[in-house]
Amino acid sequence: MAGFLPSIGLSGCTNESPADPDTGEGKPVPVIISLTPEEAAAPIAATGNGGDEIKTLNIYIVNATGKVEAHVDETDFTFNTAHNEGTTASTVKLQPGTKTVYAFANCEGDAFSTLSLSDDWATVPEAVSGNQPIDIIPINAGNGIPMSARTTWEVSESRTTYKVELIRMVAKMEITLKDQRESQSNKVTSLTLAQFQPDRTKLFRPNYGIVELPESPTLSWSDWKWVQENERTASPSIAPFYLHETKGSFTVSIAIDREASPRTAILNTTIPRNHFYPLTIYLTDYSLDIQGSYRLAAIGTVTVSKNIGNGYTIELPEGSSDVQISIGLKENGTLKSSDVTWTCSPAIDHFNYNTSGQNATLVLSSEAIPAIPAEHEIIVTATFLKNGKKETYSFDLTLLIRPLADDDLTKASPASPLRETQPISIEL
């Protein structure tokens, strides 16, 4: 999503307030506003739909007393994106001092229409002044991608150029399905990310890469669903799409012809605004069913994540004890409970392998994991019979021992000699 707008040095001509001799303000200072896009988190452009154009623009410059000292809109600038040129406009004159600058591009609706020149900023809608959630801005490339910025200037005679960096209020996602099944006669019919899309977002982000979701109960979620229509192909194409920034644990379900139940996995992720998020999902004849538990004293709910891709990642917090992880083999979504033998290498300190677990499982166990972050790469191989012939299938498995984070401490277990057991459930 990078490069939606050339870096445009522009000066803005605005309606401006004259100096008030009773306030002690000095002579107005001519300033040039440099308007630039923040680069996206991946060097990929949102092209082909005109969604990166600035169609409407409002910049409000608020002084230290809370008055809107100047207002700039799209009519003050000349955008020439066709030839990747800059823009020209008149100069803005501002009184010296501290200014808070609010900028909105392609943002429409009641929350923005009541903003007025030389008015008390405190009277504007709470959605704007308090960074409250907005659900009235359509994420529609045809209307232009909504963008916002909030920054502070110290205006003085010694400086002439001041920067406004517009930040897209949405993320862009691209999903790729890679079908590695031996027979692809049974086609993929649908893909669902459950409760994945929040219906609103905050106007401004707190910091780069940080997602701050609107508070409940104002926030509602919806599924994102793709359905393959018409002729079903072995390699379906899913168009990239825009969404509000999001974070959490989401169930990913893939429905396939003649398979009684969808294939599912849990995606734990954070997708900040102005990020491009590629997600690759692999379909194979064989997959792992991973279940287990661990104990962690004085900690409540702890996230255990599984990356969707050509391999598996089990994430455990440092200091876990009594870890028991059971791994089984699934053939076309059905768990095999017999006639499977396992190997696992290399050995990992503090972990034991039982290659002959109950119901043809591989069991990884540990009495205690040291409080040291680590990442262990192992290969898990299953050997089984198929049509009377011996087959082997290997999987990449990562055991990620991560440091405790602030979010892990949100719920303490009660003071008791019996420590809480936390579940691990990963399925693809």
From TrEMBL:
Annotated stretches, region: Disordered: 1-27
Protein name: Major fimbrial subunit protein N-terminal domain-containing protein
UniProt key word RNA-binding: no
Keyword Acetylation appears in the UniProt entry: no
GO CC annotations, alphabetized: pilus
Keywords (A to Z) from UniProt: Fimbrium, Signal
Major fimbrial subunit protein N-terminal domain residues: 36-154
InterPro entries to which the protein is assigned, alphabetical: FimA_N
Organism: Parabacteroides gordonii MS-1 = DSM 23371
Family per record: Belongs to the bacteroidetes fimbrillin superfamily. FimA/Mfa1 family.
Location in the cell: Fimbrium
